[in-house]
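Recap from last week: sequence in, structure out.
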Amino acid sequence: MSLPTTETLLLEQKDHALHITINRPKVSNAMNLKMVHELMAAFESIKDDREIRAVVLRGAGGHFCAGGDIKDMAGARAAASKADKNSDPFYTLNREFGRMLTQVNTAPQVVIAVTEGAVLGGGFGLACVSDVAIAAESARFGLPETGLGIPPAQIAPFVVNRIGLTQTRRLALLGARFNGTEAARLGIVHTVCSEADIDQELESILAQVKRCAPDANAITKALILSVGNHELDTVLDQAATSFSGCVQGQEGQEGTMAFIQKRQPNWS
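Predicted structure tokens:
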């Protein structure tokens, strides 16, 4: 595996996890187009690497991500004034963000979001495509887009999938702000900690990931995401095919032998 060179992200592999730190602390890690592309490149570089079994998303300087970079939008506006009538820089900027969210959402690894400080707009969207999310009690969540005169265009479908239509309507249409405790109540995050306890909680989750077979996890994640997107019989047919392959594959055989021999399987 060769990780890409990045300017807006810090990438570090520790044991079985790739730690991706959003690194624009001067703007509370607001997301520009370069960051979107660098996140996509990072996830692309590990998509077939089963030695990387978890990806930890975190922000530098005490903030997760404060949403889209307004300066980047201003740059798109300047580009739009110079563009030909068949080009739309605003569409491109927004749609690329949606492609990045889709890529993170479907990554075969377990994606863990560690949310602190500002978790707004695009940062909120990133939290909603994680498999496991931890929040600091003092974290500040919200969808502020409508207060800026724009919709949460690429984020909204992922928020609906995360917490349901009713709550998404309220949060998006009121631009509500709330803390980590409320984010857990809504189902955006799974665990709420004091800032002092977040690292310990992250290590506990990474240890749990290590107990699970990497191919089985990737197949399970794909199966879960297929529910509601295909006919039930199609989902169950594919699930049976996957089950048969896993039982007869290396992980299934190793897991069975480890259980019989009362030992830990080799992936743990």
